[in-house]
Amino acid sequence: xxxxxxxxxxxxxxxxxxxxxxxxxxxxxxxxxxxxxxxxxxxxxxxxxxxxxxxxxxxxxxxxxxxxxxxxxxxxxxxxxxxxxxxxxxxxxxxxxxxxxxxxxxxxxxxxxxxxxxxxxxxxxxxxxxxxxxxxxxxxxxxxxxxxxxxxxxxxxxxxxxxxxxxxxxxxxxxxxxxxxxxxxxxxxxxxxxxxxxxxxxxxxxxxxxxxxxxxxxxxxxxxxxxxxxxxxxxxxxxxxxxxxxxxxxxxxx
Amino acid sequence: xxxxxxxxxxxxxxxxxxxxxxxxxxxxxxxxxxxxxxxxxxxxxxxxxxxxxxxxxxxxxxxxxxxxxxxxxxxxxxxxxxxxxxxxxxxxxxxxxxxxxxxxxxxxxxxxxxxxxxxxxxxxxxxxxxxxxxxxxxxxxxxxxxxxxxxxxxxxxxxxxxxxxxxxxxxxxxxxxxxxxxxxxxxxxxxxxxxxxxxxxxxxxxxxxxxxxxxxxxxxxxxxxxxxxxxxxxxxxxxxxxxxxxxxxxxxxxxxxxxxxxxxxxxxxxxxxxxxxxxxxxxxxxxxxxxxxxxxxxxxxxxxxxxxxxxxxxxxxxxxxxxxxxxxxxxxxxxxxxxxxxxxxxxxxxxxxxxxxxxxxxxxxxxxxxxxxxxxxxxxxxxxxxxxxxxxxxxxxxxxxxxxxxxxxxxxxxxxxxx
Lengths: 254, 419
Fold this sequence. Notes:
The structure holds 2 protein chains of 2 kinds. By secondary structure, chain A is an alpha+beta fold. Chain A contains 4 helices and 13 strands. Chain A has one domain: outer membrane lipoprotein receptor (LolB), chain A, CATH 2.50.20.10. Helices cover 21% and strands 43% of the residues of chain A. Chain A is globular and about 50 Å long. Chain B has 2 domains: 15-62 and 272-417, no CATH class; 82-231, no CATH class. Helix content of chain B is 54%, strand content 21%. Chain B has 15 helices and 12 strands. Chain B has helices at 4-25, 27-67, 90-98, 132-138, 141-144, 167-173, 218-224, 244-254, 264-267, 269-307, 309-317, 322-357, 382-399, 401-408, 412-417, and strands spanning 70-74, 103-117, 122-130, 145-148, 161-166, 180-186, 192-203, 213-217, 233-238, 259-263, 360-368, 371-376. In chain B, the strands form 2 sheets. Chain B has a 6-stranded mixed β-barrel with strand order 2-3-8-5-7-6, surrounded by 4 helices. Chain B is elongated. The two termini of chain B are 45 Å apart. At the A-B interface, loops of A face strand 6 and strand 7 of B.
C-alpha cells in the first residue's frame, strides 16, 4: 500500500509545488503592480508640490478656461486658488484629510462640501469633488492585476469587498519605458465604461518626466471634456508647509 | 301648387293646441311635474355657475400669479429645464411680440435652483429673475408683497441689488427686510454663481407655492448666472384668455422653430386636466340629478298615456297616423319642460346674480399662489342658463319617447274596448 501510494504522493507534492509557484507568481504580480501604481500615483505629488494649471471645460453649450495655483502636502492636504477669469478669481478649495471647503471671496464665505455633494462637479468641470478629496491608497483598497505588453503595463484595479467606491473597476495603462500614465478608464459595477482620463505631452518638471496634459472625458455626456494643463510644477518645494493648508489661509486675499 | 304646406302647418297648430289641452287637463299633476323640472333647472344653473365661476377665478388668479396666458421657451425647456436652454436676443423678440394685435403685455424671466444663506442658516431656493416693470404689469406680484417693497432694477449705493424672498425662506434663514441674502448657484457657463443681495420685501405666505422663491431684478439675475442678455421665459398676456390656445398656435407658426409657444393650458397641464376632469364629474352629477327628475316626468307621461288609451284609439280610428300621436306626446313634454325651464330661468336669474356679485365667503381664505381668495363667486353668462335648459328639455323629451311609441302602437279596437 505504502509503495503503491508513492506516485500519488509525488504527484501531490508536484501539485503543491505548482500551486505554490502560481501563488508566488500571483504575489509577485500584485507586488509589481503595487509598485508601479505607487510610482505613478506619486508622480504629480511627491511629498509636496506647487503647481500652476490651466483647466479648460468644454461642453456643447460653452467653453471656459480657468487658471489656478495648487499646492499639495502628502496625500492629505491640498489647496487650490483660482486666478482667472476675473469673476472667479479668489475662489479657493481646501482639502484636509477627507474634508473639503470652498471659499468664495465675493460673498466672503467658506462653505464645507457635504458628503452628499462629493460626486458633484468641481467648478463646473468633469472632475468631481471626490476626485480631489479622495486619498484612497489604491494599492490597499483594490485588488491589482498586472498584464504587460511590449510597451505598456496594464493594471486592472478591482475594489476589495470592504472598499467604499462608486467604481466597479479602474484600468490603468502605463508607459513601460517612461513610467508615466497613458490612461485611466473607470467602469461602473455593470462593467460599463463611464469615463476616461488620458495623459499626454510629457514634460520635465523638477527632474521628472511627467505628462503635462490630462484630459477627462465623461462618456455618458457627449461633447463634454475637461483638459488640465500643467504650466508649472515644482515638486517638494520649500514654500509648501503645513500652515498653508488652514481655513484661515483659505480666506486670505491675494 | 303645394297644398301640403298649409295643411301641415294647420296640423302642427292643432297638435300644439291638443298638447296644451292635455297639459292643462290635470293641472295639479302638471304643476307638480313642472316644479320638479324647475327645481332641477335651478339646481343645474346654480351648480354650473358656481363651478365655472370658481374655476374662472382660480384660472384668473393662477395665470396672473405666474404663468401668464401664453409662455415662450427655447426648445423643450418647459419639459426639461436646463440653464443653458435660453432665448437669445430677447429684445428683438419682445419688440416683435408687443406689436402683435393679440398681445397686450409681456414679461421675461430667468430661473435657477440655488442655495440661499444668511449669517448662520442656509436653505434651498428657487431664483427667479424678473423684468421689474414687465412683471408688475403682467402678474399679481406687487399684491403679494406683504412686507417691505417691490424690487427696483438699480443697485443701492454699495452696489448691491435688491431681492424679494418668499415667507418660507425668510423663516428658514431668519432674515427680513434690509438683511443680506447670499445666493450660490451654477452659472450658465458652468461657473459657481455667488453673490450678495439685500432683501427688500417678503412675498406670499408661509404655505404658498412661492414660499421658497427669490425674485431678483432680471439684469442682476442674468449677471449672477452668467447668462448675458438671454432669458428662459417670455410670459404674455393676451386680449382674451379664452383664445390662448389659438393665439399660441398662431404665434408658434410665426416665430422661429427653435422656440416653443404654449398656452397656459399646456404649461400647467396637470392643473388644467384636473380642472377638466372635475368639470366632467360635475356634468355627470348634474346628469344624474336631471335623470332622477325626468324619471318623475316619465311616470307622469306614462300615466297620462294610459289614461288616454281610448282617446288615442279614437284618434287612430278616424285616421290619425301613429307618428302624429307619438309626436303629440313628445310635444306635450317639450312644452311642459320648456315652460318649467322658463319658470326656472325667472327664479334662477336672481340666485345666480347673487352668487356672481356677492358670492360665498370661505370659512378660511384660500391661498392661490400667495394671493388670498376670500370668496367663491359664480359666473353670470348665457351658457349658465342655456346648458341646463338644453339638458332638462332634451332629457324630458328623451324619456317621453317610450310612452310616445306606446301611444302610437295602440290598436283602435283594443283601445276602444278598454275601460
